[in-house]
Amino acid sequence: MSNLETILVIIGLFFNFAGCVGLIRFPDIYNRLQASTKCVTLGTALILMAVVIHFGWNSISLKALFCIVFIFLTAPTAAHAISRGSHRAGFSLWEGSVMDRYKEDYPPEARD
Amino acid sequence: MTKRFFEFIMLLIIWLIFVWSVQIPDIIAGVIVAFIIVLLFSDIFPAEITRLLHPVRIFWGLVYIPVFFWYVLKSNLDVAYRVFHPEIPIRPGIVKVKTTLKSEVARTFLANSITLTPGTLTVDCIEDNLYVHWINIVSEDPEVETRLIVDKFEKYLKKIFE
Known about the structure:
The complex is a heterodimer of chains A (about 110) and B (about 160). Chain A has about 110 residues and is an all-alpha fold.
């Protein structure tokens, strides 16, 4: 492995680790989603980028590139689905939260 | 019909990249798989995406990628800072911002971009309003929120998709 690959893998692991720590430390589901979605997306993308550099121009690299694109497309969508679902299921925000415009506009009682 | 043909060719190319060979059995398998997928899922594929093949749109798409990556990097450093800070400096809440984008694909990309950028997570999109969970609310004024969250992406996405 060259230096660049090692650096990419280490930075990627650092962000993945930050995402996991955020998952434990943050108070409610929405903040936890913030940490896990952002950090794990970039962390995994950087590790896959190291794979692309390591293997050069062949099918493995192209598959890794596709994986990067799909991670960037699907991770935010999944986070949106989970946060929307949990808000609709009645999981309220952490008590230290400042405001909840979504609850004001679409109160739980008004939904089907 | 053109739309279905376009999808079919695109899926076939992706298949050939994945198997990484151009022998007859692979191509036949790819044709069969692409045909079945087009038959089943063609309806949920957004038709407006074929418009993206215009050179000007591709150019702005390529400009958008580094801008987007810069914000992604910033957002990760921001989250890492909040995660490792002993007191967890957060001030979360859900704010409501307006978008002027009209097409569904553009809104999807806007919502996804917002989710991956500093401290924001799109919870829902209803009509013109995006409900965004913000980890560190700096203002209670919807105008300022819209300017801070939406505007930086909207100007690019407008050029790419509309």
